[in-house]
Each structure stands twice: as C-alpha cells, then as structure tokens.
Amino acid sequence: MDRFYAAIKKFDDYLASGEPLHGAAEGLFQGPVADALNHIGQIAMLRRLANSPSKVKTTSSPTSPPAASALSNPPPAANLTDSLIHNQTVAQL
After folding, report:
1. CA neighbours closer than 13 Å in the CB half-sphere of residue 1
2. Rounded distance, CA 74 to CA 76, Å?
3. Phi, psi for 51 (deg, rounded to 5)
4. Closest by alpha carbon to 54, among 72, 42, 38?
5. Is the pTM of this model over 0.85?
C-alpha cells in the first residue's frame, strides 16, 4: 500500500506543480485515471468477497501526513490524494 500512496502523492504533486500535462486534462482523467480507479474498486470488491479485505490505514497522530488523517474524518476533497484515500476507505466498509 505504501507504494500505491507514494505513486498517488507523486502524481498529485505533479498536478499541483503547474508543469504541462502534455495533453488535455479531460483525456487524462477520463482515460487512464478513471480506468485505474475502476480497477482499484474491482480489486477491493474481490478481496472482500474472498474474505481478505485490504488493511485500512487509519492514523490521526500529529506526525501523520494530511492525507492519512483524512481517513478518520475526511473533509471535502481538496486534492486528488485526499479524494482517492477517502474513496478507498469507503469502498472497504
């Protein structure tokens, strides 16, 4: 899971950096990002059906990164990382 969160964080940082996307944002989010989110949901569903749900990362210590604390009481999603973490948590319930 750490590798997944690291990749999402890197993608989120790139989007926030203002660097060019090398294409339309709509094409990026309606294509590969939507496809990845769909597959994440499918994997979570299949793991629950196999009685092997993913572990939910829930920490609320002061040293936790903001994205991790979003799991316990998610505010309206301010960025892609927070939105994905909240959606993954809801899917696992």
Report:
1. 13
2. 7
3. 55, 40
4. 42
5. no
